[in-house]
Write a structure and sequence with these properties.
This protein is mainly α. It contains one helix and no strands. The chain has one domain. This is Complex I-B12.
């Protein structure tokens, strides 16, 4: 009843493996905000 024997706990992946450039919609948002003068790290 204690949840034993179900395998290892889930490992959360590191956020650094995800890139904004791999998501077209985020690239659009980045460019739109850049036109308004906003810069990094606004989208992180």
């Amino acid at each position: 009843m204690g949840g034993h024997g179900h395998g290892e706990p889930y490992k959360v992946p590191d956020a650094s493996i995800y890139k904004i450039e791999n998501v077209p919609k985020l690239v659009e948002v980045k460019e739109a905000l850049a036109r308004q003068g906003l810069k990094d790290p606004w989208l992180r």
